[in-house]
Structures are given as structure tokens and as C-alpha cells.
């Protein structure tokens, strides 16, 4: 039996190729597309390669009036939490590809998912190289006690740090908290120059033209240094296969799962 899929952010950078990818499968059916700026238009008129005669909805609540198994959210920091909670409360499983959720948001989403017996997968970044960066950084944290993270994104990205970086900081905190030689609170000069502390890690967010998404984990020890870095290109292709994997897997879980590697076989 095919799974019914709704994509929020269907006309966006990742949303468009994801719509095409879903319709090209044998086990998934695209039954909903959400884009407030394109509401009322047919999806095939916005995505030229798509032949599906599907009307674009202006909200997730409206789109989920059509029976749906899984919502995929590729929207933005302002919309993602509301979209996810709307779906969960309707008993719809969710795959989160948007950034901007805080630790408090994740805790609330997990609680709601448990109450409604649905699965939620949030990866921060569905690209394989980003998943490997997290895995390698967590391995390094077992042996190196000090690190900081640099978060790169385009000048148009409104939220900081990125979802990729937030997820990395969370995963590292599961290993240990980094040691700090000189306390941040005792910084001489502008304390803000030391970045923000998230789950124990110092994070520095750069927002400049020329970047898409990048994250750099820098580990330091006496007389040596290890740098692990992920950089995304301008295309959305790296995210598609990881998202499809999460779509096919999410119904096998109840509650929130953070990290694509948690479901990779």
C-alpha cells in the first residue's frame, strides 16, 4: 500500500525536487502541497516537470484535510513548529527538514508525538556528508576534550545557529561537555565575541553571500588540532535521498528521533 505524503514548502529550494522525487517512486503518493505564496495554483503550473494535477494549499491544516500518512516540512523557522504540531495532533507522522527549532521545541514535539503515538524524524541536515560529520565529530569528542563550532550560511538565512549546527551541538553533548580553559563569563572585552553557548559548545554563526550551509567542528589539544567540515553546494540533490529514507522509516517509530544516522542501517 502506498503512503500518502504532504510536503510543506513544496515550491521551495528542496521542496520542488522532493515533489518530483516522491512522484517518481512506486511506494509514495503526493497528496498535499503547501505554499502560502502559491496558494490556489496547481502544483504542475509551478513545477514544470511535474504532471500531477494537485492544488496547492495555503496551510498545513488545510492540506491535511486530505488523508495523509506523513508530513514533510521544508519551510522556515517561523512556520516549522506550528506545522509539526498541527500534523502530530492529527495523528500524522512528520519528517522535519527545516531549521530553527530549539531544545524546548524538540521536547514539546516529542511529548506530543508520544501522546498521539506518531513518529517524528528531525535530522537537521539530510545530506550524507553532514551525517558523517556528526558521526566523526562525536567519535573525536571521546578523545579530545575541547572544541568549538563555526556555523556558515548565506546572508539571507534568518535563524542562527542553523539546524545542522544545533543538531551537532546536541549530539556532542550526548558524548560529553567540552572543557573550557578560561570561563566565557570571565572574558575580558566583549563577551559576545566568544559566540553563543549551546548544549555546552561554543558556536560562532557567519552569515555571508557565497555560502549555502556549512559547519566546521574544530577540536584542539596541546600542539595539535583536528578540523572536520561539511559544506553544501548550491543544489538540493544531497538532501533528497536522506529525506526519502526518513519518509519510509518514520512510521516505524513513536516519538522524536534526532539524527538521520539513528535510522540508517
What would you note in describing this structure?
- By secondary structure, this protein is α/β, with parallel strands linked by helices.
- The chain contains eight helices and eleven strands.
- Helix 4 packs parallel to helix 5 (103-116) and helix 6 runs parallel beside helix 7.
- The longest helix has 14 residues, at 103-116.
- The model has no long low-confidence stretch (mean pLDDT 95).
State the share of residues found in helices, binned by percent: 25-40%
Number of strands: 11
Radius of gyration: 19 Å
> What is the number of helices?
8
Question: What's the order of the H and E elements?
Answer: EHEHHEHEHEHEHEEEEHE
Largest sheet: 6 strands, parallel
Share of residues in strands: 15-25%
Uncertain regions spanning at least 5 consecutive residues:
none
Gross morphology: elongated
Distance between the termini: 23 Å
Widest sheet, order of strands: 2-1-3-4-5-11
Q: Average pLDDT across residues? A: 95
Question: Class by helix and strand content?
Answer: alpha/beta
Task: List the main descriptive attributes of the protein structure presented here.
single chain, 265 residues, alpha/beta, six-stranded parallel β-sheet, five-stranded mixed β-sheet, 8 helices, elongated
Question: Quick summary of this structure?
Answer:
The protein has 265 residues and is α/β, with parallel strands linked by helices. The chain has helices at 15-23, 43-46, 60-63, 80-89, 103-116, 128-141, 163-175, 237-249; strands at residues 3-8, 28-34, 70-73, 93-96, 119-122, 147-153, 196-198, 201-207, 213-221, 224-231, 255-258.
